[in-house]
Amino acid sequence: MTGDEMLPPTYQHLSITGSVRAAMSRNPDKQALKHGENQRSYKQLIDRVDRISTGFIHDLKLAINDHAAIVSSNSIEYMEIILGASQAGIAMATINPKLSPVEIELICNDVEAKVLFVDASSAENLRDVHFETIVRVITINNELEEWINLSKPINNLPVIQEWDTFTIPYTSGTTGKPKGVLVPHRSRILQLFGMAAEYGCYSPDDRFLAIAPMCHGAGMIFALAPIFFGGYVEIKDQFDPEDIITALKKEKITGFFGVPTHFHGILGLGNKLLEANKPASLKTIISNAAALPQAIKEKIVGIYGDNVLHEAYGSTEGGIISNLRPVDQLRKLQCVGQPFPCTNIKVINESGDECNPNEVGEIFSSSPYLFNGYWKRPKETAEALDSDGWLTVGDLAKKDDEGYLYIVDRKKDMVISGGINIYPREIEEILFQHPDVIDAAVIGVPDEKWGEALKAFLVTKDDGELSVDAIKQFCEGKIAKIKMPRKVSLIDAIPRNAGGKVLKTTLRKLD
User: Fold this and answer.
1) Most buried pick, 21, 48, 65, 505, via CB within 10 A?
2) CATH class of the domain whose range is 415-510
3) Which stretches make up the AMP-dependent synthetase/ligase domain (predicted)?
């Protein structure tokens, strides 16, 4: 007896595209997506998604669990390709278009993609790249439109299991070579329900602004959530702070997701412009991907109120793990909140025991949102899971007496100076408080006397000068002397990946 034969006759496999189809049946002519002048009603969206699914199966001859890839900036077509591929059982590797041609080639070859979708700029960059497994490259816009128009929707689409792979985002490579993360349909579908319960901005009446790159796991899931529940999504393909705040008010946006880099840019516009464009409709702001400095949180609350800001913590492998709600933003400093719905969290010390309150250890999570493993990397998959299937991505954390979670740093970023464990994030939080610092990152560098010493990379206002002595003077009384940076480098921008995480491997190469 097969697995399906054991299921009750009323059982239906969950799918993201199926839920979008249900939203279409309720209101087919409702606007679902808009990107510039380009827009789709739910009826138009489902028709095109069905044609894309047909194209994968009948034209491209791909089968369930085959892989494809996409290298593109945000667009309606990006979402249509993801939905069409998933409905056909094709797992799509979502690749950052800002990567070099060599990096994109390595990922496409690693994931064994058979088809590659590219936007116009990426097509030009990849013209001379040799792919080992790709048999067709489809350029978004003209070639994609021709391909869609030639395909006809069919009814007998394959049955996709919830545990089949939905997408394969690649880890950022902040700690080494990128790995393909096998994200199952089930994990993202159940997370969408958790997001609706937690954030309150995903009803059919809500209007969401998608500004984060869809190649990033969070950017994709936050863009898909509104149409999963029958809402509306305004898509942006590049980050222009003034354009963003104008859209918030003009489009009567009720929710948007961003990373710290976005909020730096938006707040940099100044209070006068922000107040003039403050939308009365806005009820939810979500930050994720990297730590949001407390100073930035306070500015967001000051402009948009104390009932809108959420800070989520999670990973590509584990989905959303915790969330700090608006009521706690100014009460729980440098905190990432409580477990996300359906999530359990434990913090484990080096002895393998669960930590006491305020004791630092490695964070593990268990939830329905976990990945299926790393593509072709069983060793790394085993290292990420304990014997009970709990996941760790190497982050260090602590819980307070109320069970709230505080991310201390990445385990691999911890610095040992003079035998003392130092967590760079703590120093970064202090540096962000300096009035002339726009952005900051701290790493450990070799030191003859101390073993390792701290080096701060800073981006300053108007390219102003900041010396080591000036930084030490500012840090005086705020942190112990052993934690003060012994070196300072002023740079134009802190290198970050598409999700906003600092690329400390890149910083180490600059040292």
Assistant:
1) 48
2) alpha beta
3) 22-375
